[in-house]
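Fold Annotation — chain and its backbone

Encoding — discrete vocabulary of local shapes
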Amino acid sequence: MANYLALIRKADFVDLYKYGSIHINKDMTRQFSCKVEELPNRKPIFDDLSYFANAFDSTFTYLFIHYENNFGRVNDINIADVRGLYPLDNEAKTELSLSLDPRIKINKPLWPDAVFNLQKRQTIQDCKNGASNIWKIYNLSDSIEEMINVINDSVIGEVVNELYENRRPNGDLPIWVYIMRYERHAFYPDNTIGAFMDTVNAIFNFSQKREVDSAEIESTLIMQFFQHCNDYNANMSFNEVIQRLYAQDDSRITNFINLTRSIVSDFDLIKVATLFFIYRNRYKEEFKYENGWNQSKTIGKEFSIACYMLGCILGHEHTYDCLYEHLPLAIFKVKETKAIVEEPVVEEPIKEQESTNEESSNQSDVIDSNYETKAIPNKQVGDNNEQKINVKVLPKFPCKMGKPKKGGGFSKSPKPKMVNNMNKYLELESQGWKEIKEENKLW
């Protein structure tokens, strides 16, 4: 009888045990001629079997089964032909022993270390998918390939390895590792200025090749500068802090700025790290779409690099829901668009309320604050002789929008865009874009 090893889901084995036979993916089975005891030395078999495995959170999601087959198709398995079950690691061995029929023998794992490395590789891919999701959601202007050249696979690999091996950054590592693995242990203010102080701490960690205690750097002039900014105005915006910082002429502050430029010369490291800390704190619970959040055209490449690191830290797991809602997925229910009919209202005097300068400032600075965009109904009031009904038909998505030309029609530059959701529709409409109806000509 020929011997085969297959990688199947635990749920598939439950079906095999319950119904007596199953049909499995042929890519997930391999024939072997050695003794089972020699399989741990045949890592290529593991690599072949795990290549097509889906990502998994728990190692007991999958298990290896050894079976014999000399007749029929090798991917048709009968329970009577199964010769042994092998978990992915010892944790899975314990779980399977408790959840399966107690009469079933669960053998020792064949490649526990290889499974550990497989999980790390899948996590690295999850990080990349998270960054890719943010690019798809916001259509950032900088190429994602440029970001990959900065935050490369070795950086993400080191971050993931430290996470799995419960290590903290230490030694001669890229600055991006020290930034992405940074944890705040000091009582910095929970605002934009606090994120600048996080940046200083992370850069000192890199320069000292270890995680320094905040007490070691709190007396430095650069830290005192940010503390002074916080004492002066705790709500100071990102741009204002940057302007004040680069206006300083004290050598102890300019030396720190020059240090950052010696670490990274192609862009502003202080901006990148601070934006990353702001967004990591903002979206630590949930990543969500915000109008006006995309600052790639105003801030530049620094914004895009910060977003790439943010995507890597959040991963696909914490960004896919926002992506699916933004696309939206073809399998989602179609949201019906109905005419909004407002009831006629009796005319009454409208008291206007002026917004304060503080309110205007808070609304304009999207980097430094969280906000929600709410639609305000535009009511039409009828007179004594005639009452009018305001009917507004919502756009049917997807729809095409373009920038109108003065002489009529739509401009070729910027190019018309397909819009899939109301947030994007309102964003473009506020910029003067109009929906291109079927009867309208593009140019």
In short: DSSP finds 18 helices and eleven strands in the chain. Residues 112-138 form the longest helix (27 residues). The longest strand covers residues 2-9. The CA atoms of residues 30 and 45 lie 7 Å apart.
